[in-house]
Amino acid sequence: MRKVLVVIVILVAVLVWVPGLRQKVWSGVSNTVGEWTKPDAGPVKGVNIVKVYVVRNGPYYHMKDCPEIAGKAVVSTNLAEARELYKPCPVCKPPQ
């Protein structure tokens, strides 16, 4: 417990005595806290309802009737997840 107290005192002393360091640390903390306290916009309406399809190693997500995935093994997912990992297909032009 005593070692922890010594470390805390040293950290506080460094923050006080090193010019500009305290401002850099606190500006980073305040930016992070600001991100935590921002109100969440919530889910976009309809995003989780739309199903799109992906080929396991493909770069795009597709609509069900896309000719690019005809006859291939596909996996269905929701649009929100597909947006994070894939680009929209230039052929069938799924929602973005």
Structural notes for this entry:
The chain is of the alpha+beta class. The chain has 2 domains: 2-37, no CATH class; 41-96, no CATH class. It has 3 helices and 4 strands. The longest helix has 17 residues, at 21-37. The termini are far apart. 10% of the residues are buried.
Summarize the structure.
The protein has 96 residues and is an alpha+beta fold.
For this entry, give a set of tags.
96 residues, alpha+beta, 2 domains, 3 helices, 16% strand
Sheet with most strands: strand arrangement: 3-1-2-4
- The percent of residues in helical segments reads 40-55%
State which percent range the strand residues make up: 15-25%
Q: Structural class, please? A: alpha+beta
Order of helices and strands: HHEEEHE
Terminal residue distance? 54 Å
- Dominant shape: rod-shaped
Topology at a glance:
Elements: H1 2-17, H2 21-37, E1 51-55, E2 60-62, E3 74-78, H3 79-85, E4 87-88
Parallel strand pairs: 2-4
Antiparallel strand pairs: 1-2, 1-3
